[in-house]
Amino acid sequence: MNRLAGVTSPYLLQHADNPVDWWPWEPGAFEEARRRNVPVLLSVGYSACHWCHVMAHESFEDQATADFLNAHFVSVKVDREERPDVDAVYMEAVQAATGQGGWPMTVFLTPDGEPFYFGTYFPPAPRHGMPSFRQVLEGVRQAWSERPEEVAEVAGKIVRDLSGREMSYGDGAAPGEAELAQALLGLTREYDPQRGGFAGAPKFPPSMVIEFLLRHHARTGAEGALQMARDTSERMARGGIYDQLGGGFARYSVDRDWVVPHFEKMLYDNALLCRVYAHLWRATGSEAARRVALETADFMVRELRTAEGGFASALDADSDDGTGRHVEGVYYVWTPAQLTEVLGEDDARLAARYFGVTEEGTFEEGASVLQLPQQDEVFDAGKVASVRERLLVARGERPAPGRDDKVVAAWNGLAIAALAETGAYFDRPDLVDAALAAADLLVRVHLDEQARLARTSRDGRTGANAGVLEDYADVAEGFLALASVTGEGVWLEFAGFLLDHVLARFTDEETGALYDTAADAEQLIRRPQDPTDNAVPSGWSAAAGALLSYAAHTGSEPHRAAAERALGVVKALGPRVPRFIGWGLAVAEALLDGPREVAVVGPSAADPSALELRRAALLGTAPGAVVACGTPGGEEFPLLADRVLVDGAATAYVCRNFVCELPVSDVDALTERLTPTGA
Predict the structure, then answer these.
(1) For the whole model, what pTM was predicted?
(2) Other CB atoms closer than 10 Å to residue 638's CB: what's the count?
């Protein structure tokens, strides 16, 4: 029976024709395992995962392996992007047992969902000390049949160990100057001054840490923080992790020098980095940062936007190499001969020097990943632009990587914030329009009558899985950015609906701690709860940031108090593991600075002077400042209450905790008010 045919996950649909009798994650799968008295094979992956595709081809498409699985197991396939709660719970078990994790994640469960054996990728034959997948299956089957008491004991111990893990929330107080200074010192110790970034290979784009560094510099004037942010951003933008032809970033670099990426492109990385480079430009005026922010925004709109106005999750790392084989990176890399074929000999030599393409290659089989190596040669800008355009056109004729076109609420929230701000900074109303269209899709398709969020949709059809904390928090963050950029108060209202759910359904009333799933969500063997930032802001950090911004807009004490309580975990973790709580540290910077509340009023919504003041407010570097723009007494924003024009002219008010400085009508004066005294 093909149970995957009707799902919305492209990853699950890729497995719909496997000979394995797959189940999606649902109660029926565990009831079937209980009825047959067999273990459950849980296989977790995602569409852009290279090794997930490899294992699928080697094992799940193999008839003999499938026959064995179907006879002795109930097989459950999960898209980690649709069910981050399932992924988080069992990944915690895998990492606790093996010291490492990754995807595909392979876990064997009892019919009660209790894990007892773990792994990630298993090859079809023994390799490098790893058993084959078939050997693993036979060993698990034998243990289940011949030593059931031992299996039950192991599973029970694992569940007890997971349930007994307690998280340190600190003393419930938000971090102060001392903790943020310690966090900066910790980052300095891990910083790679030769290459940018932190620690060794593989290197992931530290977007949230860079945001913290920019905010810390804005608040304190610490030049070391700005230098780490600026140099890391420059190294990434010059490296192979950045697509030098089409814009946008790959997921991570396999080496310390940012040269060879793991080639999948994720929406969340590009949304976060687009916003970071826009903020770097705001802080420094860097033309390179401006270029990368706009190119990354254009990449998202051009290659990830769906017909319904949302943004797809990812582009695969693999594509057809022209012979029917799916090969990682083949879409993006070049040999000198390929350059010559497209450009002719003279321009090919120029392109090879400019992009670092060599005969030896920087990747596999003599191919090179395009980068911008540091060199003394000065290149003609017009010639480089022509070369880049011709190569991009030629690349477009290659078989393209697959696209995972499901819309994930949280990641679209990140994209909305990035596109709204980038469009506002650089006078690109088309980018703001793209953000508005994505927000409209989330409201129409993902939100129900009670403002509860669905995690995903595809082709305009709502997915079956409930939103988790990061969905509510990141979508609220996106809506709050839209409210500031557009002056449309409806987005502030929608953000409030979502944050009410955060307070009511995701927050522990006694401690203020946050959970990744709602109190009324499906109960797993453990309620997931992780405050650390990984590839994306944790739901915990994201919620703290959105709650704080909403409180600044509205004066809501419950929202501000919840944000401050949530930041207690940042006080505990920030000085110890700053690399893994960057967004939490960035939110803490906003709290220390206020955050500042800016109200701009004009004679009309389209008044040119009011629009200039709003732009100046948006370009202010004060950490986490919120902006409301409208006419005097506008009901759409609480910040506009009792605000009046001064001498009939557009006027800006800068406040902290609703205590305001004297109003100003001059752009330069407003800019000065929004430049923290430490900078």
Answers:
(1) 0.95
(2) 17
